């Protein structure tokens, strides 16, 4: 009942399998190339603007008015009786860092 498969049939089957394998690999390579080309950043040459750089100073002035408010305010209470002897700065006075 078992017969040997003719060599011609085996060659045809092997050729079909090889063609299918090459087609699948080719499609996979094509898909990878398309995905890479879509994900790559590209710029049109028409949109590129070239210019020479000049050295110099940049002067910018900003004027504004407003009120500076503290981020937080604290009330200090002492457990003993005390009094304020001297006030060094008043509201609205300018202060420097570290003073």
What order do the helices and strands come in, and which of them pair?
Layout: H1 7-39
Order of helices and strands: H
Number of helices: 1
Largest beta-sheet details: none
Q: How far from one another are the termini?
A: 108 Å
Helicity, as a percent range? 25-40%
Q: Rg, please?
A: 41 Å
Structural class: mainly alpha
- By oligomeric state, this entry counts as single chain
Total beta-strand segments: 0
Proportion of residues in β-strands? under 5%
Which runs of at least 5 residues are low in confidence (pLDDT < 50)? none
Q: What is the overall silhouette? A: elongated
What is the residue-mean pLDDT, rounded to a whole number? 87
Task: Compose a concise summary of this entry.
The chain is mainly alpha-helical.
What does this protein structure show overall?
The protein starts with 6 loop residues before the first helix and ends in a 60-residue tail after the last helix. With 99 residues, the chain is mainly alpha-helical. The chain has one helix spanning 7-39. The chain is built from one helix and no strands. The protein has a domain at 7-39.
Q: Key terms for this structure?
A:
mainly alpha, single chain, 99 residues
């Amino acid at each position: 009942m078992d017969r040997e498969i003719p060599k011609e049939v085996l060659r045809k089957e092997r050729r079909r399998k090889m063609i299918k394998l090459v087609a699948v690999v080719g499609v996979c390579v094509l898909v990878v190339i398309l995905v890479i080309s879509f994900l790559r950043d590209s710029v049109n040459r028409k949109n590129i603007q070239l210019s020479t750089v000049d050295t110099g100073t940049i002067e910018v002035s900003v004027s504004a008015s407003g009120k500076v408010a503290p981020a937080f305010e604290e009330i200090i209470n002492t457990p003993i009786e005390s009094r304020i002897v001297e006030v060094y700065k008043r509201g609205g006075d300018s202060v420097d860092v570290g003073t």
